[in-house]
Amino acid sequence: MRDTRASLLSEAEILVRGRGYSGFSYADLAEAVGIRKASIHHHFRTKEALAQALIEAYDARYDAALDDISGQTADGVARIEAYGRLYLGGVERGLGCLCAALAVELETLPEALRRAITAFFEKHIAWLAGVIEEGQISGSVRAGLDPQAHARMIVATLEGSLLLERFLAGPEGFGRTLAALSEGLRPVNKS
């Protein structure tokens, strides 16, 4: 049986990704996990502490995924496609990205959460910029692209597609967007 803390994190992540930070309460979480609301406070004294733990767990999962992607292939476009597929689970489950769902409410979030969300996205942009730079050196990514600008575009495209395809064309539409994004990064064949 899963421990209570893990269950709370799992269910809270679903609630935040589906409803946003302000869209759920400890009462909602208690009902989802099947415990008393007061029991949640034993694990997470405040909603901010819960959200911080969610971001940390989400970030750790992505760190492991980025390491896996880096170890699977040196091809820049293949790495970016694998990164894009990390978003596919959200499309399939009808859930947004945790950090993007929180970022929507940025102005109302505590400062510590804002910093954690910013750090999450900055890390991903830096990783993607590195993939683009390495890909340009190896010839697997089109030369002449601005790595920082394109890394930001990749994140923005995937986040936007995750949002849109949850209610438009689902995984198929997301796959088409990812394919178009990837195609724009491939080196131009000069036959």
Automatic annotation (TrEMBL):
Gene3D superfamilies: Tetracycline Repressor, domain 2. PROSITE patterns: HTH_TETR_2. InterPro entries: Homeodomain-like_sf, HTH_TetR, Tet_transcr_reg_TetR-rel_C_sf, TetR_C. Residues 2-62 form the HTH tetR-type domain. SUPFAM superfamilies: Homeodomain-like (SSF46689), Tetracyclin repressor-like, C-terminal domain (SSF48498). Keywords: DNA-binding, Transcription, Transcription regulation. Residues 25-44 bind DNA. One of its GO terms (molecular function) is DNA binding. The keyword Transcription applies. PANTHER family: HTH-TYPE TRANSCRIPTIONAL REGULATOR YJDC, TRANSCRIPTIONAL REGULATORY PROTEIN. This is Regulatory protein TetR. The keyword Cell membrane does not apply. Pfam families: TetR_C_13 (PF16925), TetR_N (PF00440).
